[in-house]
């Protein structure tokens, strides 16, 4: 039988995997939303809520870890769901995750120039029009388009170039966060925590407030899943890929939780309320108070700006690889499967997503919030389908080579399906705190309709070739895409920690 071989250059190392996944999860939210989290759940309550949200993603991440190591092909979810559910299930799962990636990339194109307005109040020049209550300015559009173009070019120049950018910016984000955390220890006070440890009177109300925050926290962890999309470009032992994904989730949980605690340790309840009603950048105001100068607030804002770029960069990488994988298997037009002759990147897919990110700012930031929420729904649907695929393949193909094999797989799979299913319900149930509004449902419906059109046309045109190339790669060829697993000390430590957590939970 004909076998597919990888056309990508293997340029990504273990550190690249970690910063791509971590950088995707740590965006702008920790700068603009910390006040909302504290007001909703309290300082300690919100930190606990993020730990709970991290546990939800932890189970989903474990299913990704096993499946990525077993099937290290470009496309990730596309390959997993095809092996478990066939071409129709694979199409739905991959089309959903592409919606998530593209929507976030478009949102970040609008978020970046918005941050500049915080740093430079006189930045907005040349009023053009208003859309959905948002005023669009020429200077705002120009910056968004230029940055979108540059990020597209960086990704076209290769995954390694994108990873270098990710490393630099992630270090800046981490540095800004660490400065805030250390400053809170030195200048903060336990007295500031009085009255804001938890929200509500009594244990029952406190737990209710924690859950209210916990149900939205998984949305801040979306991004670790970009790693499977670039699996064929990773030059790391198969077993280690999954561990780096899990480690990135753990680091994101720790980062978010410590930032929340630091803000609460520096600002008292009245100051948080004042900051919310003023700039809305509670984290930045906490930094300014800790150092006694507003200049330091800009350090946090710059960190948030870097977070926008890291998320944007990661989702552009993930979205283009997902489109390439669908095109290569004739599920969408093969035009999107073209690789750059020199850099071996899916250039046409990158051109399309890059063009969309350059056009998105014209729609205004309010509409981009709707698109982003619709995209998060797509990510959650894909998570659920991958979790189901994990369980199906354990039953259907128990002897599949699994370089990274999750223990207590029934428990892990069940929890992953339940957790991702709950995330979907949050979007669907009115009043849940994350339910989609009418405009967002229209966008989900429009994307779904476009998918139906592609599915029908390609299914009719390519017939038996529809999805064919996914199954042309054997288990042996998949394993040969990367080096064998090694026995480094870090692997042993992470294995032991994961086993202890699963054993205690199960």
Please provide a written account of the structure.
The protein is mainly alpha-helical and 506 residues long. Helices cover 70% and strands 2% of the residues. It has 19 helices and 2 strands. The protein has helices spanning 14-25, 29-32, 34-41, 43-70, 77-119, 138-156, 159-187, 202-214, 226-229, 238-266, 269-277, 282-291, 295-328, 347-359, 365-396, 409-428, 438-462, 475-480, 489-505, and strands spanning 127-131, 134-137. It has a two-stranded antiparallel ribbon with strand order 1-2. Helix 10 (238-266) crosses helix 12. The longest helix is centred in the N-terminal third of the chain and has 43 residues, at 77-119. It is globular, with a radius of gyration of 22 Å. The two termini are 42 Å apart.
């Amino acid at each position: 039988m004909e076998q597919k071989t990888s056309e990508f250059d293997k340029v990504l190392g273990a550190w690249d995997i970690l910063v791509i996944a971590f950088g995707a999860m740590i965006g702008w939210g920790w700068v603009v939303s910390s006040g909302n989290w504290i007001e909703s759940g309290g300082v300690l309550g919100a930190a606990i809520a993020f730990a709970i949200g991290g546990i939800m993603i932890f189970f989903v991440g474990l299913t990704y870890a096993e499946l990525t190591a077993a099937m290290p092909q470009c496309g990730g979810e596309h390959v997993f769901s095809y092996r478990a559910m066939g071409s129709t299930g694979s199409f739905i799962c991959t089309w959903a995750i592409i919606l998530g990636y593209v929507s976030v990339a478009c949102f970040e194109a609008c978020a970046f120039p918005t941050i500049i307005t915080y740093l430079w109040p006189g930045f907005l020049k040349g009023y053009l029009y208003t859309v959905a209550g948002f005023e669009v300015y020429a200077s705002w559009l120009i910056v968004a388009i230029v940055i979108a173009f540059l990020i597209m070019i960086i990704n076209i120049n290769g995954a390694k170039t994108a990873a270098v950018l990710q490393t630099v910016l992630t270090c800046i984000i981490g540095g800004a966060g660490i400065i805030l955390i250390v400053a809170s220890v030195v200048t903060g006070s336990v007295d500031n925590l009085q009255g804001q440890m938890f929200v509500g009177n009594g244990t029952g109300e406190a737990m209710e407030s924690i859950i209210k925050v916990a149900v939205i926290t998984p949305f801040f962890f979306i991004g670790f899943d970009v790693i499977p999309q670039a699996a064929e470009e990773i030059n790391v032992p198969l077993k280690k890929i999954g561990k780096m994904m899990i480690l990135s989730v753990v680091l994101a949980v720790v980062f978010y939780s410590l930032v929340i605690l630091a803000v609460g340790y520096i600002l008292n309840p009245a100051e948080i309320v004042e900051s919310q009603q003023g700039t809305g950048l509670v984290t930045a105001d906490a930094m300014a108070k800790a150092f006694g100068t507003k200049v330091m607030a800009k350090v946090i804002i710059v960190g948030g700006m870097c977070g926008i770029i890291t998320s944007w960069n990661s989702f552009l990488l993930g979205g283009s690889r997902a489109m390439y994988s669908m095109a290569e298997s004739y599920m969408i037009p093969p035009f999107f499967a073209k690789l750059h002759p020199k850099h071996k990147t899916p250039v046409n897919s990158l051109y399309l997503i890059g063009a969309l990110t350059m056009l998105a700012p014209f729609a205004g930031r309010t509409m981009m919030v709707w698109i982003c929420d619709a995209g998060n729904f797509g990510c959650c649907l894909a998570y659920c389908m991958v979790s189901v695929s994990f369980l199906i393949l354990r039953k259907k193909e128990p002897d599949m080579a699994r370089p990274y094999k999750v223990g207590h797989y029934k428990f892990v799979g069940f929890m992953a399906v339940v957790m991702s299913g709950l995330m979907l319900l949050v979007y669907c149930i009115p009043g849940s705190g994350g339910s989609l509004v009418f405009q967002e449902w229209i966008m989900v419906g429009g994307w779904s309709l476009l998918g139906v059109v592609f599915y029908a046309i390609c299914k009719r045109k390519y017939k038996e070739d529809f999805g064919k190339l996914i199954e042309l790669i054997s288990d042996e060829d998949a394993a040969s895409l990367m080096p064998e697993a090694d026995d480094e000390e870090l692997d042993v430590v992470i294995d032991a920690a994961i086993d202890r957590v699963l054993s205690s939970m199960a």
